[in-house]
Amino acid sequence: MKVLNESIHLKLEEKVNLQDLKIYYMDNDGGNPMVSTVHPEVYKTLSKVLHYFKDTYGIVPEKVSIPKMHRSFEIWSKVLVSSGLRPITVEMTGRVGEANLWLEILKWFIPG
């Protein structure tokens, strides 16, 4: 902890000029077929937030595409498994109970 105390001096009490912010965003994960698409309401809300920063502070948000972001779920799930933390089936339920993984996979392939 001493190393952190000496090298990091956060200035949390100082005001931030929001006009100095740079905003980068992604509106999807790059197309992983095993991940649900972004809900239209999320797109709508993201658009509102981006327009707010542009109209209020003159910030032009920049859309980015991070290479291999479509593999983020795979990376996350492997880290989760190797860390010894909660299983993915618990995370899928928002940590309320446990999902039946095979049933969820079956639902993925059967529309409706």
UniProtKB/TrEMBL annotation:
This is Fatty-acid amide hydrolase 2. GO terms for cellular component: endomembrane system. GO terms for molecular function: hydrolase activity. The gene is FAAH2_7. Keywords: Hydrolase. It comes from the Eukaryota.
